[in-house]
UniProtKB/TrEMBL annotation:
One matching Pfam family: GGDEF
SMART domains linked to this entry: GGDEF (SM00267)
Record-given protein name: diguanylate cyclase
Example GO BP: cell adhesion involved in single-species biofilm formation
Sorted UniProt keywords: Membrane, Transmembrane, Transmembrane helix
Transmembrane segments: 50-71, 77-98, 110-129, 135-159, 166-185, 197-222
InterPro entries named in the record: Diguanylate_Cyclase (IPR050469), GGDEF_dom (IPR000160), Nucleotide_cyclase (IPR029787), Rev_trsase/Diguanyl_cyclase (IPR043128)
Magnesium recorded as keyword: no
Cofactor(s) in the UniProt record: Mg(2+)
């Protein structure tokens, strides 16, 4: 049995982008613990596609009234036209007033509203049509209303969703279909209803796979775009976006946010004496050790050359100092000559330093890093240079 499961996993993995690492496959199942930038960009993409979907429905929904006018009696047509105009107004409001915020909860809300509008329209129109005796061409057009759940289920394929997200949305559409069947219980054609329900389940499965495939490609592309190719940590460009998002979050919660500039000591001599390949290896090893010691909420950036920036949300000054002492105390690796690699660190924290902008916090951490370098290196500076209250870390082997 384990061999069969391993084979199944390998076959499923082969259907996904080759750039996706095996330990990243879990991100396709649930939205928990997704990288911050992936959440932000995925939320923006979902809302933009919701607005595109809303635009199409806002245009096409009222146009179908022309078909209804030709085949239905005036009273039925007027009722359906009223439903269509209300749906069109709701789609238009969604298009005009909903803007991407980069927040995944807002994206969930947008997609829920998008699917709620036609679902309510479907239940209302299905119930209304069931109360009329339709014949010939009007019956054919009336039967066309039954295809709306299939259109909605197929519409899930345009969104980059995890398996859990797809199943939740698909389940809601299936419940709506079941509710429509319950409301027309007396006239329900059970074989036809059961076949349609089974087809909806099959489309839900295809839509889930399509959403996961989109998310996998997006995950791979975002990772390639935001990571430093040498060390694998976040690049400076993406790091500035992460810092801004974390700053906004800290301000909303009035919480702590610590920044640490980490500059590897005497790194230029490694390149000069041992070559750039040796220097690259030292950088990779230092980054690997730093990442291994971080919390899931922390973000490590390669700021440039041998400089790294560590972003620690919900971490006050005292906690940040203790964390850095633990992290750096475990060692950053070795220089090519066998000596321990050390670092000069500047630390700043939003609440303690009472700064008003993330750029000021960044500048303060950078200033204190240079204070640590001029003060003898292999140390942390967490106060103004005038106070010169520094803590020296003794690195392990």
């Amino acid at each position: 049995m384990p061999a069969f499961l391993d084979l199944l996993r390998d076959r499923l993995s082969s259907l996904l982008p080759s750039e996706l690492k095996p330990n990243e496959l879990r991100h396709l199942l649930s939205p928990r613990r997704h990288p911050l930038l992936l959440c932000q960009r995925r939320a923006t993409l979902i809302v933009n596609r919701v607005r595109l979907f809303a635009f199409l429905f806002a245009v096409l929904t009222p146009l179908w009234s022309l078909i209804d006018l030709m085949v239905f009696e005036p009273r039925l047509w007027a009722a359906l036209a009223g439903f269509r105009m209300m749906a069109c107004l709701a789609f238009t409001c969604l298009l005009l007033f909903y803007r991407p915020s980069g927040n995944l909860l807002d994206a969930y809300r947008a997609i829920a509203i998008l699917f709620a509008i036609p679902t309510i329209f479907y239940i209302a129109s299905h119930t209304l049509l069931g109360s009329y005796q339709l014949a010939q061409f009007s019956a054919v057009v009336g039967a066309g209303y039954a295809f709306l759940p299939f259109v909605l289920m197929a519409g899930l394929t345009i969104f980059p969703l995890t398996l859990v997200e797809s199943l939740v949305l698909a389940s809601l559409l299936l419940l709506a279909q079941a509710l429509a069947g319950y409301l027309s219980w007396a006239t329900l054609n059970w074989p036809s209803f059961a076949g349609a329900f089974w087809l909806l389940i099959l489309i839900a499965g295809v839509a889930s796979l399509a959403g996961m495939s989109q998310l996998a490609f997006m995950f791979a592309l975002v990772r390639q775009a935001i990571r430093d190719p040498l060390t694998g940590v976040f690049s400076r460009g993406s790091g500035e976006e992460i810092l801004r998002l974390q700053w906004d979050s800290a301000q909303r919660k009035n919480g702590a946010l610590a920044l640490a500039f980490i500059d590897l000591d005497h790194f230029k001599t490694i390149n000069d004496n041992h070559g750039h390949e040796a220097g690259d290896q030292v950088l990779r090893e230092a980054a690997r050790r730093l990442v291994a010691a971080l919390r899931a909420s922390d973000s490590l950036l390669r700021w440039g050359g041998e400089e790294f920036l560590l972003i620690m949300p919900d971490t006050d000054m005292q906690q940040a100092r203790q964390a850095l002492e633990r992290i750096v105390g475990q060692g950053l690796g070795q220089r090519p000559d066998g000596a321990a690699l050390t670092a000069s660190i500047g630390l700043a924290e939003r609440c303690c330093d009472q700064v008003a902008d993330y750029r000021d916090l960044l500048e303060l951490a950078d200033k204190r890093m240079y204070c640590a370098k001029t003060g003898g290196r292999n140390r942390l500076c967490a106060v103004e240079p005038e106070a010169l209250e520094q803590a020296t870390f003794v690195l392990g082997a």
